[in-house]
Protein backbone atom coordinates (compact mmCIF):
# COMPACT_ATOMS: atom_id res chain seq x y z
CA UNK A 1 0.00 0.00 0.00
CA UNK A 2 2.80 2.41 0.93
CA UNK A 3 4.74 1.64 -2.25
CA UNK A 4 1.59 2.17 -4.30
CA UNK A 5 1.05 5.63 -2.80
CA UNK A 6 4.72 6.52 -3.20
CA UNK A 7 4.63 5.49 -6.85
CA UNK A 8 1.70 7.84 -7.44
CA UNK A 9 3.37 10.73 -5.63
CA UNK A 10 6.74 10.20 -7.31
CA UNK A 11 5.67 12.43 -10.20
CA UNK A 12 6.00 16.13 -9.23
CA UNK A 13 3.13 17.10 -11.54
CA UNK A 14 0.84 14.57 -9.83
CA UNK A 15 1.76 16.02 -6.44
CA UNK A 16 0.78 19.51 -7.57
CA UNK A 17 -2.49 18.27 -9.05
CA UNK A 18 -3.29 16.32 -5.87
CA UNK A 19 -2.57 19.30 -3.63
CA UNK A 20 -4.54 21.64 -5.88
CA UNK A 21 -7.59 19.37 -5.95
CA UNK A 22 -7.39 18.90 -2.18
CA UNK A 23 -7.39 22.65 -1.61
CA UNK A 24 -10.15 23.17 -4.17
CA UNK A 25 -12.39 20.54 -2.59
CA UNK A 26 -11.78 21.83 0.93
CA UNK A 27 -12.48 25.48 0.12
CA UNK A 28 -15.52 24.66 -2.03
CA UNK A 29 -17.00 22.50 0.72
CA UNK A 30 -16.57 25.23 3.33
CA UNK A 31 -18.26 28.08 1.47
CA UNK A 32 -20.73 25.70 -0.16
CA UNK A 33 -22.16 24.89 3.28
CA UNK A 34 -23.55 28.41 3.65
CA UNK A 35 -24.86 28.41 0.08
CA UNK A 36 -26.58 25.08 0.74
CA UNK A 37 -28.16 26.20 4.01
CA UNK A 38 -29.45 29.41 2.42
CA UNK A 39 -31.17 27.25 -0.22
CA UNK A 40 -29.10 28.81 -2.98
CA UNK A 41 -27.60 25.65 -4.41
CA UNK A 42 -28.39 26.91 -7.90
CA UNK A 43 -26.26 29.99 -7.22
CA UNK A 44 -23.00 28.10 -7.66
CA UNK A 45 -24.18 26.68 -10.97
CA UNK A 46 -25.30 30.13 -12.10
CA UNK A 47 -21.98 31.78 -11.23
CA UNK A 48 -20.02 28.97 -12.88
CA UNK A 49 -21.92 29.27 -16.16
CA UNK A 50 -21.77 33.06 -15.96
CA UNK A 51 -17.97 32.85 -15.85
CA UNK A 52 -17.72 31.53 -19.43
CA UNK A 53 -18.33 34.87 -21.21
CA UNK A 54 -15.83 36.53 -18.87
CA UNK A 55 -13.17 34.02 -19.91
CA UNK A 56 -13.99 34.51 -23.59
CA UNK A 57 -13.93 38.31 -23.35
CA UNK A 58 -10.56 38.18 -21.58
CA UNK A 59 -9.13 36.19 -24.49
CA UNK A 60 -10.75 38.37 -27.16
CA UNK A 61 -9.35 41.55 -25.62
CA UNK A 62 -5.81 40.28 -25.09
CA UNK A 63 -5.52 37.36 -27.55
CA UNK A 64 -3.24 35.83 -24.94
CA UNK A 65 -3.54 32.41 -23.35
CA UNK A 66 -3.11 33.45 -19.74
CA UNK A 67 -4.73 31.55 -16.89
CA UNK A 68 -4.54 34.63 -14.70
CA UNK A 69 -6.40 36.78 -17.24
CA UNK A 70 -8.99 34.06 -17.82
CA UNK A 71 -9.70 33.75 -14.11
CA UNK A 72 -9.85 37.53 -13.71
CA UNK A 73 -12.41 37.70 -16.52
CA UNK A 74 -14.39 34.90 -14.88
CA UNK A 75 -14.30 36.77 -11.56
CA UNK A 76 -15.60 39.98 -13.12
CA UNK A 77 -18.36 38.09 -14.95
CA UNK A 78 -19.35 36.30 -11.75
CA UNK A 79 -19.59 39.57 -9.83
CA UNK A 80 -21.70 41.10 -12.60
CA UNK A 81 -23.96 38.04 -12.48
CA UNK A 82 -24.51 38.42 -8.72
CA UNK A 83 -25.48 42.06 -9.15
CA UNK A 84 -27.75 41.07 -12.02
CA UNK A 85 -29.56 38.54 -9.83
CA UNK A 86 -29.92 41.10 -7.03
CA UNK A 87 -31.24 43.74 -9.45
CA UNK A 88 -33.83 41.38 -10.96
CA UNK A 89 -35.15 40.25 -7.58
CA UNK A 90 -35.22 43.78 -6.16
CA UNK A 91 -36.89 45.64 -9.03
CA UNK A 92 -39.26 42.97 -10.31
CA UNK A 93 -41.66 40.35 -9.01
CA UNK A 94 -39.40 37.55 -10.17
CA UNK A 95 -38.20 35.28 -7.36
CA UNK A 96 -34.55 34.57 -6.78
CA UNK A 97 -34.53 31.03 -8.19
CA UNK A 98 -36.11 32.27 -11.42
CA UNK A 99 -33.64 35.18 -11.55
CA UNK A 100 -30.74 32.76 -11.19
CA UNK A 101 -32.15 30.65 -14.02
CA UNK A 102 -32.43 33.72 -16.25
CA UNK A 103 -28.88 34.87 -15.53
CA UNK A 104 -27.52 31.33 -16.00
CA UNK A 105 -29.07 30.82 -19.42
CA UNK A 106 -28.32 34.32 -20.71
CA UNK A 107 -24.68 34.38 -19.63
CA UNK A 108 -23.98 30.81 -20.71
CA UNK A 109 -25.66 31.41 -24.07
CA UNK A 110 -23.49 34.48 -24.62
CA UNK A 111 -20.44 32.48 -23.58
CA UNK A 112 -21.19 29.66 -26.03
CA UNK A 113 -21.64 32.15 -28.87
CA UNK A 114 -18.32 33.81 -28.02
CA UNK A 115 -16.57 30.47 -27.66
CA UNK A 116 -17.82 29.33 -31.07
CA UNK A 117 -16.65 32.58 -32.63
CA UNK A 118 -13.22 32.23 -31.04
CA UNK A 119 -12.85 28.60 -32.10
CA UNK A 120 -13.52 29.56 -35.71
CA UNK A 121 -11.01 32.40 -35.54
CA UNK A 122 -7.38 32.39 -36.56
CA UNK A 123 -6.00 31.67 -33.09
CA UNK A 124 -8.95 29.71 -31.78
CA UNK A 125 -7.22 26.35 -31.87
CA UNK A 126 -4.51 27.61 -29.52
CA UNK A 127 -6.86 29.37 -27.10
CA UNK A 128 -7.58 26.30 -24.99
CA UNK A 129 -10.90 27.77 -23.90
CA UNK A 130 -12.77 24.53 -24.52
CA UNK A 131 -10.90 23.04 -21.56
CA UNK A 132 -12.73 25.42 -19.26
CA UNK A 133 -16.06 23.77 -20.04
CA UNK A 134 -15.19 20.45 -18.37
CA UNK A 135 -11.88 21.36 -16.77
CA UNK A 136 -8.39 19.99 -17.14
CA UNK A 137 -6.74 19.44 -13.78
CA UNK A 138 -3.74 17.85 -15.48
CA UNK A 139 -2.69 21.30 -16.67
CA UNK A 140 -2.17 22.55 -13.11
CA UNK A 141 1.29 23.84 -12.27
CA UNK A 142 2.90 25.18 -9.13
CA UNK A 143 1.55 28.71 -9.56
CA UNK A 144 -2.01 27.38 -9.92
CA UNK A 145 -1.64 25.49 -6.64
CA UNK A 146 -0.41 28.67 -4.96
CA UNK A 147 -3.55 30.40 -6.20
CA UNK A 148 -5.67 27.55 -4.82
CA UNK A 149 -3.86 27.84 -1.51
CA UNK A 150 -4.48 31.58 -1.39
CA UNK A 151 -8.17 31.12 -2.20
CA UNK A 152 -8.50 28.41 0.45
CA UNK A 153 -6.82 30.64 3.03
CA UNK A 154 -9.04 33.62 2.20
CA UNK A 155 -12.23 31.55 2.41
CA UNK A 156 -11.15 29.89 5.64
CA UNK A 157 -10.26 33.20 7.32
CA UNK A 158 -13.49 34.84 6.13
CA UNK A 159 -15.61 31.97 7.45
CA UNK A 160 -13.80 32.05 10.80
CA UNK A 161 -14.05 35.82 11.21
CA UNK A 162 -17.72 36.12 10.18
CA UNK A 163 -18.91 32.68 11.27
CA UNK A 164 -21.56 33.93 13.71
CA UNK A 165 -22.82 36.52 11.23
CA UNK A 166 -22.96 33.98 8.40
CA UNK A 167 -24.79 31.59 10.72
CA UNK A 168 -27.47 34.14 11.59
CA UNK A 169 -27.90 35.24 7.97
CA UNK A 170 -28.18 31.63 6.80
CA UNK A 171 -30.78 30.51 9.36
CA UNK A 172 -32.75 33.66 10.27
CA UNK A 173 -31.98 36.82 8.27
CA UNK A 174 -34.93 38.60 9.87
CA UNK A 175 -33.50 38.09 13.35
CA UNK A 176 -30.06 39.14 12.11
CA UNK A 177 -31.56 42.33 10.69
CA UNK A 178 -33.29 42.99 14.00
CA UNK A 179 -29.92 42.72 15.77
CA UNK A 180 -28.58 45.48 13.55
CA UNK A 181 -26.41 43.32 11.33
CA UNK A 182 -25.89 44.49 7.73
CA UNK A 183 -27.70 41.52 6.20
CA UNK A 184 -27.46 42.76 2.61
CA UNK A 185 -23.71 43.29 2.94
CA UNK A 186 -23.22 39.86 4.50
CA UNK A 187 -25.27 38.20 1.77
CA UNK A 188 -23.18 39.91 -0.90
CA UNK A 189 -20.02 38.85 0.95
CA UNK A 190 -21.14 35.21 0.88
CA UNK A 191 -21.86 35.55 -2.84
CA UNK A 192 -18.44 37.12 -3.42
CA UNK A 193 -16.72 34.26 -1.60
CA UNK A 194 -18.78 31.82 -3.66
CA UNK A 195 -17.63 33.56 -6.85
CA UNK A 196 -14.01 33.25 -5.73
CA UNK A 197 -14.43 29.53 -5.02
CA UNK A 198 -16.13 28.96 -8.37
CA UNK A 199 -13.46 30.83 -10.30
CA UNK A 200 -10.70 28.90 -8.54
CA UNK A 201 -12.32 25.58 -9.45
CA UNK A 202 -13.05 26.27 -13.10
CA UNK A 203 -9.63 25.17 -14.33
CA UNK A 204 -9.84 21.81 -12.55
CA UNK A 205 -13.51 20.90 -12.88
CA UNK A 206 -14.91 23.25 -15.53
CA UNK A 207 -17.88 25.60 -15.58
CA UNK A 208 -20.31 22.72 -16.10
CA UNK A 209 -19.35 20.68 -13.02
CA UNK A 210 -17.82 23.11 -10.52
CA UNK A 211 -21.18 23.73 -8.82
CA UNK A 212 -21.22 20.07 -7.74
CA UNK A 213 -18.22 20.70 -5.48
CA UNK A 214 -20.15 23.48 -3.75
CA UNK A 215 -23.35 21.52 -3.17
CA UNK A 216 -22.54 17.81 -2.90
CA UNK A 217 -20.01 17.83 -0.01
CA UNK A 218 -22.27 20.18 1.96
CA UNK A 219 -25.29 17.96 1.35
CA UNK A 220 -23.30 14.91 2.46
CA UNK A 221 -22.11 16.68 5.61
CA UNK A 222 -25.66 17.76 6.48
CA UNK A 223 -26.65 14.10 6.75
CA UNK A 224 -24.25 13.55 9.66
CA UNK A 225 -24.80 16.48 12.00
CA UNK A 226 -27.04 19.33 13.12
CA UNK A 227 -24.08 21.49 14.20
CA UNK A 228 -23.11 24.14 11.65
CA UNK A 229 -19.46 24.22 12.72
CA UNK A 230 -19.14 20.45 12.37
CA UNK A 231 -21.05 20.52 9.10
CA UNK A 232 -18.67 23.10 7.60
CA UNK A 233 -15.67 21.04 8.72
CA UNK A 234 -17.13 17.79 7.36
CA UNK A 235 -18.02 19.46 4.06
CA UNK A 236 -14.43 20.63 3.69
CA UNK A 237 -13.12 17.13 4.48
CA UNK A 238 -15.55 15.49 2.05
CA UNK A 239 -14.56 17.96 -0.66
CA UNK A 240 -10.87 17.30 -0.05
CA UNK A 241 -11.44 13.52 -0.16
CA UNK A 242 -13.30 13.91 -3.44
CA UNK A 243 -10.41 15.89 -4.92
CA UNK A 244 -7.86 13.33 -3.76
CA UNK A 245 -9.95 10.44 -5.11
CA UNK A 246 -10.34 12.11 -8.49
CA UNK A 247 -6.60 12.73 -8.75
CA UNK A 248 -5.60 9.19 -7.72
CA UNK A 249 -8.05 7.43 -10.04
CA UNK A 250 -7.17 9.65 -13.00
CA UNK A 251 -3.51 8.88 -12.36
CA UNK A 252 -4.05 5.13 -12.23
CA UNK A 253 -6.45 4.88 -15.18
CA UNK A 254 -5.27 6.33 -18.50
CA UNK A 255 -7.45 8.93 -20.26
CA UNK A 256 -9.65 9.36 -17.18
CA UNK A 257 -10.43 13.05 -16.54
CA UNK A 258 -9.76 14.31 -13.03
CA UNK A 259 -12.64 16.79 -12.78
CA UNK A 260 -15.56 14.48 -13.58
CA UNK A 261 -14.09 11.71 -11.40
CA UNK A 262 -13.82 14.21 -8.53
CA UNK A 263 -17.50 15.04 -8.92
CA UNK A 264 -18.40 11.34 -9.07
CA UNK A 265 -16.41 10.73 -5.89
CA UNK A 266 -18.34 13.50 -4.16
CA UNK A 267 -21.57 11.92 -5.38
CA UNK A 268 -20.56 8.54 -3.94
CA UNK A 269 -19.81 10.20 -0.60
CA UNK A 270 -23.23 11.83 -0.63
CA UNK A 271 -24.96 8.55 -1.51
CA UNK A 272 -23.14 6.76 1.30
CA UNK A 273 -23.98 9.54 3.75
CA UNK A 274 -27.64 9.60 2.72
CA UNK A 275 -27.79 5.84 3.21
CA UNK A 276 -25.63 5.25 6.30
CA UNK A 277 -25.81 8.42 8.42
CA UNK A 278 -26.93 7.48 11.97
CA UNK A 279 -29.75 10.03 12.28
CA UNK A 280 -30.68 11.24 8.81
CA UNK A 281 -29.66 8.18 6.79
CA UNK A 282 -32.26 6.14 4.96
CA UNK A 283 -31.32 2.94 6.80
CA UNK A 284 -31.52 4.65 10.19
CA UNK A 285 -34.91 6.13 9.34
CA UNK A 286 -36.15 2.77 8.13
CA UNK A 287 -34.91 1.10 11.30
CA UNK A 288 -36.59 3.69 13.52
CA UNK A 289 -39.81 3.28 11.55
CA UNK A 290 -39.70 -0.49 11.98
CA UNK A 291 -38.96 -0.13 15.69
CA UNK A 292 -41.83 2.32 16.16
CA UNK A 293 -44.17 0.00 14.26
CA UNK A 294 -43.04 -2.98 16.33
CA UNK A 295 -43.55 -1.05 19.57
CA UNK A 296 -47.01 0.02 18.42
CA UNK A 297 -47.97 -3.57 17.59
CA UNK A 298 -46.71 -4.77 20.98
CA UNK A 299 -48.81 -2.12 22.74
CA UNK A 300 -51.85 -3.06 20.68
CA UNK A 301 -51.32 -6.75 21.45
CA UNK A 302 -50.94 -6.03 25.16
CA UNK A 303 -54.09 -3.89 25.13
CA UNK A 304 -56.09 -6.62 23.40
CA UNK A 305 -54.83 -9.22 25.86
CA UNK A 306 -55.81 -6.99 28.79
CA UNK A 307 -59.28 -6.37 27.39
CA UNK A 308 -59.71 -10.07 26.69
CA UNK A 309 -58.68 -10.96 30.24
CA UNK A 310 -61.09 -8.40 31.70
CA UNK A 311 -63.93 -9.74 29.57
CA UNK A 312 -63.22 -13.30 30.72
CA UNK A 313 -63.28 -12.22 34.37
CA UNK A 314 -66.61 -10.43 33.91
CA UNK A 315 -68.15 -13.53 32.30
CA UNK A 316 -66.97 -15.68 35.21
CA UNK A 317 -68.39 -13.18 37.70
CA UNK A 318 -71.79 -13.25 36.03
CA UNK A 319 -71.85 -17.05 36.17
Order of helices and strands: HHHHHHHHHHHHHH
What's the count of strands?
A: 0
The radius of gyration over CA amounts to 26 Å
CATH topology of the domain at 13-210: ABC transporter involved in vitamin B12 uptake, BtuC
Overview of this protein structure:
- It is a multi-pass membrane protein.
- Keywords: Cell membrane, Membrane, Transmembrane, Transmembrane helix, Transport.
- It comes from Paenibacillus xylanilyticus.
- It is a single chain.
- It is built from 14 helices and no strands.
- With about 325 residues, the protein is an all-alpha fold.
- The protein has a domain at about 15-210: Orthogonal Bundle (ABC transporter involved in vitamin B12 uptake, BtuC).
- Helix 3 (about 40-60) packs parallel to helix 5 (about 95-120), helix 3 (about 40-60) runs antiparallel to helix 11 and helix 11 packs parallel to helix 13 (about 260-275).
- It is globular, with a radius of gyration of 26 Å.
- The model has no long low-confidence stretch (mean pLDDT about 85).
Amino acid sequence: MGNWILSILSDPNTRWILLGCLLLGFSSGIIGSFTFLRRQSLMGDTLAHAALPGICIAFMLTETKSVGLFLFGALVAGIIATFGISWITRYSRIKQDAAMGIVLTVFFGIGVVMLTRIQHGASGSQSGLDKYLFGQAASMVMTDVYVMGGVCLVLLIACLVWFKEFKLVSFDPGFARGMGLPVAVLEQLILLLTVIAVVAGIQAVGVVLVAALLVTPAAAARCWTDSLALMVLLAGIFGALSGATGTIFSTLVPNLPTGPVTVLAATVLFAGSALLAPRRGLLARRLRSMQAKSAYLREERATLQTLSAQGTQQERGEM
